[in-house]
Amino acid sequence: MVELTFDRYHGFDEMTEILEGFAAEYPGLCELYSIGWSSAGRELWLVELTNKSTGEAEEKPAVYVDGNTHAGEVTGKEVCLWMIDRLLKGYGEDDEITGLLNTRCFYILPCLNPDGSELYLTTPYKRTGGGIPNPEFEWKQGLYEEDVDGDGFITQMRVQDPNGDWRVSEEDLRIMVKRRPDEFGGSYYRVYGEGFIRGYDGGEIKMAPTRWIGGTNRNWPERWKPESRAYGADLPLDEPEARAQADFWRKHKNICGGLAFHTHGGIIVRSSSAVSDNELDIRDIATYEFIGELGTELTGDSEYPSVGGNSALFTLDPKRPRVGTAKDFFFDIMGVYAWTYELWDMAGHAGLGNFRERGGIRFGREDNRSLEENLKLLAWNDEALGGEGFSEWTPFDHLQLGPVEIGGWKDKFTWRNPPTKFLAEECARAGTFMIAYAALSPLTEIVEVKAESLGAGLHKLSVVVKNRGFLPTNITEQAKKANIAKPVTLELMHGSDVEVLINAEKLEVGHVEGRSDKLPGRFYTPLGPKKAPPGRYFGGMWGRGGDSSSKAAEWLLRVKDGGEAEVTVVASSEKGGVDRETVTLTG
After folding, report:
1. Do residues 139 and 281 both lie within one domain?
2. Relative to the CA of 305, which of 53, 149, 299, 514 has its CA 20 to 30 Å away?
3. Helix and strand element counts for the chain (H, E)
4. Strand order across the beta sheet in which 564-573 lies
5. Burial class (CB in 10 A: 0-12, 13-18, 19+), 213
6. Is residue 523 part of a domain?
7. pTM, rounded to two decimals
8. Which domain range does residue 164 map to?
9. Domain co-membership, 279 together with 355
10. What pLDDT digit, counting tens, does each position of 417-468 carry?
11. Residue 278 forms beta bridges with which residues?
12. Sign of the Cα pseudo-torsion (485, 573, 519, 86, in order)
């Protein structure tokens, strides 16, 4: 029996053993397979979770989740493992989970970047990318990261310099504060990342390229342009991990939504990261915001806000185009909602408010943080971590720079990932989001099959199909716009003893709404969707009234030779799944 604990970060081999254990222990619910290989030949393990006795995975609505896209964001792997553990052990014990695994499917890939992740977990290095050796690193000059003092951490170096732009704070000697333009007469420093300098001549210190490249979330063809290439990727889907991921999505049309677990900051990010909201359909924005707010509620007191990936995080400059991320590819190209979930928020734990409250992306840079904020962060380190998250500034004789002091945040497992004492809590906080989202997916169900005998072997067959889910069978308006949303079909399966006289054996009945078209906050007019006054809704008197979640069809059939015959009605939706009902007709 797999007994999974979250008191440490799991390496690739241990993760593989855990996943194999789950597949062996729950053969009716869990299937493990590889969707490809990393650059170094590691398997890209994916777990498929569904109750196989209630139908094949491909015939059920599905959600896709992955973690550890970026090498250093190892918390994502742990949340994925937590989800797998929760779903499997909850089956038969938790009614919601049991119902979901009976009717839906989960595709979970815990570690998309196993090469970079292994380097991050087993070495002091922080910039491990996709683990692909960078040929430029061996000859280009500049400062490169290295554990200079051999303490197992790469922190910072401060070097005294009369022209330096930093000074030591009087409030706490560990804190460096920016020197004011009119400040003179004190001791000043230049601050660098800990490392050595290739080609140092005593003058300007440039940054050397990183040892490893790849492992980026910007390797996608969505809005890709040559000037937007980054992290050593020359072409979209240049890296085998991203290419395997895209191939998997392409082959699994039943995926209704996706999420990638990243770190850090404590935010749930929706599309788009490349264009403004003006280019998105207003109903898609409303639905995105509604589901994002649900995710915020699930984070509890921490209140990880849901934000747009454009204005909340970036300045969109037409002269500097941004390439879309995986979630944007999911939304724009595949037509489903997807999120980047930025796990862990050290600043929030330190009492500085959530992402929005402390000023958004501004807060991330050290020179943007106030003295008071830095004091609070160090106070939290001292109280919650016993001071272990910060290395005291210690004199060291640097091979090239001479006397320096080395110290600062051990940021791999303070800022970027939670210290292990907070890991289980973070997994539980974030792991329920896509479980909740799966319950919102469309669910195609035949609710009525009526056969009326007309005599002489003739029968009128009436069928009603309903979407029992929250989201429509097309998921997004973007899917319609991109012409990738397949309509629901009704098909008759029968033997040669049945003849279809009126209507085709297979019919398109269009898209079927769920309950999301009644979302508060938006209403529809003949001119299109508009912002509604408080309390107005998509439907009812302000828009589409009645029940739009059902479709019906009729056939005229003849049973030959006056005998009995079976007819099976198959309702199929690419996103809403497949349902079947069989009736017996008497000639």
Report:
1. no
2. 514
3. 12, 28
4. 506-510, 488-494, 564-573, 577-586
5. buried
6. no
7. 0.92
8. 135-209+349-413
9. no
10. 999 999 999 999 999 999 999 999 999 999 999 999 999 899 999 999 999 9
11. none
12. negative
